[in-house]
């Protein structure tokens, strides 16, 4: 079976799994595990952008040590800075590239090459998906297309999961408000929920 066919099957399998999940954390984990396995690389991390701090926060990681993942805050403006227009960024040698924020930590982890793909929703950058290799790696167009497709699918799925959770939470609040058990008797009148204090009393 060709490498292209294997990646295509991986893409199909992950799309099915992601589409059935309603948990953002599960979607993120399936994505990084699937990419690591499909490409046979050292590891993969999905970062989400914190708009307030401009830092990239780890949503899911696979194949990398805890020490490396906790090396320090990842600055979105310093660490392989990306925008929706930039597209993928491939770094062949992390030891000789000024865009790497923590080159010493990368060397200690045994990371040699990195592929960074932006995660974009409705034209807005919400994160980045990064692939790490232990050898010098010239990423092919097939590799990049696979990672790009999964990054986009994961981003949309996470966004939909968030919206779904928010929607469900709103419904539960509305149900509680409408539940007769939660309304204390005597505080409201038949006048469409108008408080007793403002309902006009009949003249004696």
Structural account:
The protein is of the alpha+beta class and 204 residues long. The chain has a single domain (3-166), classed as 2-Layer Sandwich (Beta-Lactamase), CATH 3.30.450. It has helices at residues 3-20, 24-39, 66-69, 103-109, 141-178, and strands at residues 43-50, 55-62, 74-75, 89-91, 113-121, 124-133. Strands 3-2-1-6-5-4 form a 6-stranded antiparallel β-sheet. A hairpin with a 4-residue loop joins β1 and β2 (55-62). α1 (3-20) runs antiparallel to α2. Mean pLDDT is 77; it is low at 1-5 and 185-199.
Radius of gyration: 24 Å
Q: List the secondary-structure elements in sequence, H or E.
A: HHEEHEEHEEH
Helix content: 40-55%
Tally of discrete structural domains = 1
Mean pLDDT: 77
Strand order of the largest sheet: 3-2-1-6-5-4
- Provide the CATH superfamily: GAF domain
Task: Please outline the major beta sheet.
Answer: 6 strands, antiparallel
Strand content: 15-25%
DSSP strand count = 6
Distance between the termini: 93 Å
Low-confidence stretches: 1-5, 185-199
- Shape label: globular
The CATH architecture designation is 2-Layer Sandwich
From the 3D structure, determine the CATH topology.
Answer: Beta-Lactamase
CATH class, named Alpha Beta
Number of helices in the DSSP assignment: 5
